[in-house]
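Q: Structure for this?
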Amino acid sequence: MKRNSPWLRRMGVLFLLVWSLVPLYWVLNISLQTDAQISAKPANYLPPTPSLSNYLALISGTGELPDAIRRSMVNISVECGVATVVTVLLSTLAAYAFARMTFRGRRILFYSVLATMAFPAYTTLIPLYRIMTFFGLVNTYTGIILVYVSGFLPLATWIMYNYMSSLPISIEEAAQVDGASRMKVLWHVVLPLARPGIISTAVITFLFAWGQFLFPLVLSSDLSTQPLTVVIAALQGRHTVPFSLLSAAGVFAMGVPALIAVTLNRYIVSGLLTGSVK
Amino acid sequence: MSFSTRRRVDLLPYALVTPLTLFIVGLALVPAGYTIVASFFRVQELNPPTTFSGLDNFRRLFSDEAVRSSMANTALYVLVGVTLSTVLAIGMAVALQHRFAGRSILIAVLILPWALPGVVEGIVWSSIWDSNTGLLNSLLSSVHLIDHYQVFLGQNQLLTILAIELVQVWQITPLSVLLVLAALQNIPGDLYEAAKLDGCSSWSVFRWVTLPLARPGITIAMVQAVIVTLNVFDQPYVLNGAASTGASLTMQTYFISFQNLDFGEGYALSLLITLVTLLVSFGVFKLVYRPVEF
């Protein structure tokens, strides 16, 4: 406890709080003001007349802009939700095979999967766009979800593999001796035990998917599939959109991941650490 | 685990890994291979046919003024981003090293910027850097450090890059902190006890115990930072647009491929970025990593 001087640690803690929270406070502060109020000099450090009107305008307003925000919120939820479910499902099945079975080609396949993690994601940006064009999947949910799943599967498989390998094998063996098939063992024994690993994988996959920008920017061309991130960036380029309204849209885009990060941070931390150490 | 002695091929593991294999081969390995091959071809959407062109794509890249200035910009992003995120991560990890009340809440706060979309973070920070209504201008003029509002983005190249990269550092530092913190928690407590008995100052404990033993964690954090800073896109795209003061190499890939529809040159630039990323990551690994045994 007394190893490093307490005031130095307190300074570090204070810095961490200011560094992480001040930008978030600032965007909240702006989103609660009118566009006239945010042009004040010096700036209003607290909203003079806090109002949810920017949020209400987005939620229940009519017109092109609120429609775009609402539609893109549906899009991002569908794309991230489906991509997460598929990624968790496929990575769990594969990780079970890698962790508990021997088969020809196991090592080479496992290392190929891991090797793809060393490459920057954008290496495959153009070919993936060309492939999706070829199969007519540009500007479809399917196209975006396929790309997300392929991008997040390696990390997800790695996290699930590490988690399953850390489980005691004796329980599974006992179940097999009792005559349970391997798929029954997976479903009734391994999956319940692996729950924390599954939650980690799901949460990390979902957050990665939610933060995507360049892939959907290329793969979706209109509001039928554009996620919130792409729509917000497009609005930012238009100077006709009031910044206070844009900030409220930004808060919408940050609300879901922020809530997940705060409530499930234990799973994020353990998942990220098994995902990158070792 | 199977009690069967008959030599029948066990199909179950193959069934379990088939979907993963299809995804990895079809949507990662084949496209990556395609990038390598196609970077030696002339592939222009509006101007077919596709023909072999040797190193022509690379030649055009290096003679393109916009690409050349983006190379310099990207080098600065990497330099600033890796240095700053590593220094901050070590500082914050040391602050969080020992258990104290409220530590888990701090870790939840810490990972917030990591969890949020980079594009939206760019918009958040644009309200801090803004030249008319920004928080930074307001604060600086309140304490009379400036007498009129300044333009931070888009004029001075170095300032622009610093301001943009700080936004990325904000996003990537939390992961670095976790990685360094994990390494710090592997350090046995008796090493600190021994150092204290020997009368070491807190600085020399940090310099000779903490820092060397955290090297594996610091290495991974730095390699992560190299990969993401070398491929930076969201933050400069939102904060500074196509302007040459801040455009990154990944942004050029996007412009070349999806605005000029010159896929051949885009493939070549993708391949170049990938190779440089692998090379610099490996270099940093060699430079920083030392195995640690307790």
